[in-house]
Design goal:
transmembrane helix; 74% helix; MetI-like_sf; cell membrane; 14 helices; mainly alpha; Carbohydrate ABC transporter permease
Length: 288
């Protein structure tokens, strides 16, 4: 009892300390980035280490410069965000259209090599993207699609479809077969059963998988650089941010404002779908 009481007391003391330390490590860099984005360059040069500023010091000029079109002397991030949103949403929709029937088939249908196919889906994701960079660059150049957002979407879908199928397969395996058998007795076909029974039950996994795909497409840089670097109007937000960081003429405050704009949509999506995300990530852990 003495040892148990000691361990409980020790954990009671260490738990809040560890939580606070983790919060500082995770939140402080983002806080300082947001703080710098709202400061003027003069204020930053005078006191670069300030961790708190007054309301009078808040300056929105950096965000206006980042969002303003290039013709008005800005960085044109509105166009970049539009392109990134279009690419990310298209990637999510097309990947789920491919992954849902593929995962359901691997989970429910019996065919030769079923287990090997599941392992192959996961193994494809282990290959570094850089191995495909040159072949894909040559391929889409020959097709005349270099500089096109369509080519970028095709590449992203091919990258994440395999791991999406593997992830959703584990979740579909947790859906009781008896529910689908009952639907079949009531006259539902295979597609009706998947649409009316399996998909509603798999919604947490679909949301978490969609968010995972969205984050990859939103933040991806390598293929965006390869395909779009010559056509500024088609740049994604990650490519635009890299252009800011690589320029000595762009102030640090403007770079931080661009970083906040890049990060904020992911944070909003994460907190908006947090409950479904946690359920989807833990689903399939015990079966499949």
């Amino acid at each position: 009892m003495g040892r148990d009481r000691f361990e409980n007391g020790l954990f009671a003391v260490l738990k809040p300390i560890v939580i606070v330390l983790l919060l500082i490590v995770a939140v402080f860099p983002f806080y300082y980035m947001v703080l710098l984005s709202f400061r003027s360059l003069d204020s930053l040069l005078q006191n670069p280490g300030a961790l708190w500023i007054s309301i009078e010091e808040l300056d929105l000029a950096t965000y206006l410069e980042v969002l303003a079109p290039v013709s008005d002397g800005g960085q044109g991030f509105v166009v970049f965000m539009r392109n990134s949103l279009l690419v990310a949403l298209s990637t999510v929709v097309l990947t789920l259209l491919v992954a849902i029937p593929g995962a359901y088939a691997v989970s429910r249908l019996r065919f030769f090599g079923r287990r090997q196919v599941s392992a192959l889906f996961l193994a494809v994701y282990f290959f570094p993207a850089i191995l495909l960079a040159v072949p894909l660059f040559v391929f889409f150049t020959q097709l005349g699609l270099r500089g096109s957002l369509v080519a970028l979407v095709v590449v992203y879908v091919s990258q994440v479809a395999a791991v999406s199928i593997y992830t959703l397969r584990n979740y579909f395996a947790t859906v009781p077969v008896s529910l689908e058998e009952a639907a079949a007795i009531d006259g539902c076909g295979r597609l009706q059963t998947m649409w009316k029974i399996s998909l509603p039950l798999a919604m947490p996994a679909l949301v978490s998988n969609g968010l995972f795909i969205f984050m990859i497409a939103w933040n991806e840089f390598l293929f965006a650089l390869l395909f779009l670097v010559e056509k500024r109007d088609s740049w994604t937000v990650s490519l635009g941010l890299s252009q800011l960081s690589g320029s000595i003429e762009v102030p640090t405050t403007v770079l931080m404002a661009g970083s906040v704009i890049l990060t904020l949509p992911i944070i909003i999506l994460f907190f908006a779908s947090e409950r479904l995300l946690v359920g989807g990530l833990t689903a399939g852990a015990e079966k499949g």
